[in-house]
Write a structure and sequence with these properties.
heterodimer, A: alpha/beta, FAD/NAD(P)-binding domain, D-Amino Acid Oxidase, Chain A, domain 2, eight-stranded mixed β-sheet, 10 helices, 29% helix, 27% strand, B: mainly beta, Folate-binding fold, four-stranded antiparallel β-sheet, two-stranded antiparallel sheet, 36% strand
Chain lengths: 416, 88
């Protein structure tokens, strides 16, 4: 069913009784050309682009729970491409460009809203760092503007400009950045992939890999054995767990990242704002809730919930930056499990096992990467070669020393 | 989350700093496999969902290093002790 104003009118006149499910309820077949493990944004996008760009429609997406029940439903919905390094910037910019055309592409309202992402700076040194990043972005053809304090005040008059400890000197603004509706992204990709013949199979947990010699030729699941010529893993958050089933040890640790939403208030925060002196970022959802987050809880975790010291730290960041929201009540908080790679950058690569492909290590950055991650992972699986903008995301870069250290602080598993 | 420090007693998480996987063993730099071994020791992790051996530093307390066994699925602290020389 194609969605349009005419479909909506027709359904309105007939009591909305004719809507059909957005995607087919597929039963697993015995074999597929390609299996994607993980029915989150990345997995579904991969399946969609395999079908759309590469004509491979004999694809199954296997999801342990229901689709979008992992990190796709637990992020803060920010999209941006304000990266410094040559290994990252073209990839995230390609993702940004795919976001810009996503809704027409999928015939689905993903509520992509380019309301701007502003990173505030609070010292001369930080201004220089941001200016460098902005220049790098512009040299890659990405929009970036360096605002001074007056420019920030014009945009966000409600920030605390009298804060002696963390004075706001300005900010780096990417106007094309913004937010998108996370669930709609999942549903849109699922629907579009299903329409092209992809089987989306939920409640199907992978419990082992079928091997023939070194080759991976299928998976054991809670719904039976399924064979495939190629298998892609897109299970960020559980990557180490699933990889262990294939005997792989990876440069990844799992950490919990908390996020928060407040009660709904009238339109207040116009875009995405990040505090540069602590770690705090905030935007306002279309329903009116303030959506915000900050640092990782700094220890290995698969618990999908965090602890109070981080809650306190995030709220202190909020109060230092915008005391005006001090009396707004927090409605909910939740935690998602991050694949923290050892350099803060993702992995889209083959593994040492022929037939098994890896998409992992997204750290904080998975949501914004969804379209390009799917695009590049599909390219890798279909053609057995890395896509041009994802060439740096090699699994062997940790052994060879070609790390992508966006933050510039050396290899450790708790980077942004 | 609270950690039972063997010296100070049960203390809040905010007093501690995390130092990660405690099973790290420094490889022999003179081994012909040193490159590979250092790569594995520095970068690769078991990252288990379940009991995890890890190091915590009681920064705002007695400043002891602690070896903690904790379930990463529930944050339950299973055991705490001072590290032994044989751990490294």
């Amino acid at each position: 069913m194609r969605y349009s104003i005419f479909t909506l009118l027709r359904q309105s006149l007939t009591g909305h009784r004719g809507w059909t499910p957005a995607w087919r309820d597929a039963q697993p077949k015995d074999a597929y050309a390609v299996i994607i493990i993980g029915g989150g944004g990345h997995g579904l996008a991969t399946a969609y682009y395999l079908a759309k760009v590469h004509g491979i429609t004999d694809v199954a997406v296997l999801e342990k729970g229901w689709i979008g029940s992992g990190n796709a439903g637990r992020n803060t919905t920010i999209i941006r491409s304000n990266y410094l390094l040559a290994g990252n910037n073209p990839f995230y910019e390609w993702s940004m460009q795919l976001w810009e055309g996503l809704e027409q592409e999928l015939n689905y309202n993903a509520m992509v809203s380019q309301r701007g992402v502003l990173n505030l700076y609070h010292s001369d040194a930080q201004r220089d760092v941001y200016a460098r990043r902005g220049n790098a972005m512009r040299m890659h053809g990405v929009d970036a503007e360096l605002l001074d304090a007056r420019g920030v005040r014009r945009m966000l008059p409600f920030l605390d400009y009298d804060n002696a400890r963390f004075p706001i000197h300005g900010g780096l603004l990417q106007r094309r950045g913004g937010t998108a509706r996370h669930d709609a992204v999942v549903w849109g990709y699922a629907r579009a992939a299903s329409d092209r013949g992809v089987d989306i199979i939920d409640n199907c947990e992978v419990t082992g890999f079928l091997r023939e010699g070194a080759n991976v030729v299928g998976v054991e699941t809670s719904r039976g054995t399924i064979r495939a010529r190629k298998i892609g893993m897109a299970v960020a958050g559980s990557t180490s767990r699933v990889a262990r089933l294939a005997g792989l040890r990876l440069p990844i640790e799992s950490y919990v990242l908390q996020a928060f939403v407040s009660e709904a208030i009238k339109p207040f925060v116009p875009g995405v704002v990040t505090f540069g002196a602590g770690h705090f970022y905030i935007s306002q959802s279309d329903k009116g809730g303030l959506v915000f987050g900050g640092d990782l809880d700094g220890y290995n975790s698969y618990a999908q919930r965090g602890n109070l010291p981080t809650v306190e730290d995030v709220c202190e960041g909020a109060m230092a930056l915008m005391p005006a929201i001090g009396r707004v009540r927090v409605l909910r908080s939740w935690g998602g499990i991050m694949d923290m790679s050892m350099d803060g950058s993702p992995i889209i690569d083959r593994t040492v096992l022929p037939g098994l492909y890896l998409n992992a290590g997204w750290c904080y950055g998975g949501f914004k990467a969804t379209p390009a991650s799917g695009w590049c992972f599909a390219h890798l699986i279909a053609r057995d070669e890395a896509h041009e903008v994802a060439r740096a995301y090699r699994l062997d870069r940790f052994a060879s020393g070609h790390l992508i250290d966006e933050r510039g602080v050396g290899a450790q598993p708790n980077l942004h | 989350m609270r950690i039972q420090c063997p010296f100070c007693g049960e203390r809040d998480l905010s007093e501690f700093a995390y130092h990660g996987d405690a099973t790290f063993q420094r490889p022999d730099p003179d081994s012909p496999e040193a490159d590979r071994n250092f790569y594995e020791a520095v970068y690769l992790r078991d990252n288990p969902a379940g009991p995890h051996e890890e190091l915590w530093y009681h920064a705002a307390g007695c400043r002891s290093w602690l070896r903690v066994r904790r379930d990463t699925r529930t944050h339950e602290i299973l055991a705490v002790r001072f590290p032994a020389p044989s751990d490294t």
